[in-house]
Amino acid sequence: MSAPFAAMLRGALLPTLVVGALTVLVFGLLRGGSGAAAAAIGVAIAVLFFAAGLKVMIRIVEANPVAVFAGAMAVYLGQLVFLGVVVLLLGQVAWLDGWACGLAVFVATIVWQVFQVRAYLRMRQPVYDDPHPSVPTHHAGGTP
């Protein structure tokens, strides 16, 4: 059952790393080495936060659907709150280009979310029980 979350992790990680590398390159060209380093830190923070969230979901997916939904909402809210706190705290660090770090986190977050949803939609995961199972059932009367 953890396959959907593993697929979402695979589907979001590579595009985020590619766009993250481009973001680091752009900030390196625009703001020098400090901008590139700050952008790399921002991308790393976003990737770690969202990958950790999916890893948590892989662990709780075997619970009942209400618990999984509550867990998913708690994980997502926690990710956004902690991500915001980290960005705000890092914005106050003198040696870090806060603008580059914050924008890199934003870009990586948007790319991660878009490709995570894209991966989920491409899985074609059924959300209901199949009313017509593929295995025929035999009734005692001889006719199905």
Features:
single chain; elongated; 144 residues; 3 helices
How far apart lie the N and C ends?
31 Å
Number of domains: 1
Shape, per Cα inertia axes: elongated
Low-confidence stretches: none
Residue-averaged pLDDT: 84
User: What percentage of residues falls in helices of 4 or more residues?
Assistant: over 70%
Order of helices and strands: HHH
Give the SSE layout.
Elements lengths: L2 H58 L4 H27 L6 H26 L21
Helix pairs in contact: 1-2, 1-3, 2-3
Report on this structure.
- The protein is an all-alpha fold and 144 residues long.
- It has one domain.
- Helices cover 77% and strands 0% of the residues.
- It has 3 helices and no strands.
- The longest helix has 58 residues.
- The mean pLDDT is 84.
Q: What is shown here, in short?
A:
The protein is mainly alpha-helical. It has helices at 3-60, 65-91, 98-123. The protein is elongated and about 65 Å long.
